[in-house]
TrEMBL record:
It comes from Methyloprofundus sedimenti. The lineage of its organism: Bacteria, Pseudomonadati, Pseudomonadota, Gammaproteobacteria, Methylococcales. Belongs to the CRISPR system Cmr5 family. One of its GO terms (cellular component) is cytoplasm. It is found in: Cytoplasm. This is CRISPR type III-B/RAMP module-associated protein Cmr5.
Amino acid sequence: MEFTIQQQRAKKALNAVQALRVTLNIEKQKEFISYANSLPAMIHMNGLGQAMAFYKMKGKEPGAYAELYNLVSDWLCRTGQPYQGKQDVLTGITQCDMHQYQLAQAETLVFMSWVKKFAKAFLAEEGQ
């Protein structure tokens, strides 16, 4: 059975978010939702490289920033994605050309729309 790219994005995002329900406590889940919502805006304002470098810096300790960095990195480095075969997204950004960078940035924005929706649907929000 073959899946569309949208189905693949949705499946990866859903699996990741559902796993976070187990691994992150309620406060970290709220942080994840907040950071997932702000990542696309940060990418628009600063570019994928700067945004991912910021999330990597903030994600030195386990938590929402690290989970988001790893999720985006895993997605962009998998088969069929712009940084296929690279160690992580920052390695891909620094070793690939501008065309791949633009593809990776656009792909991240589309992928994050699924992550945001599933995070709001399945993780704890403010007031809960």
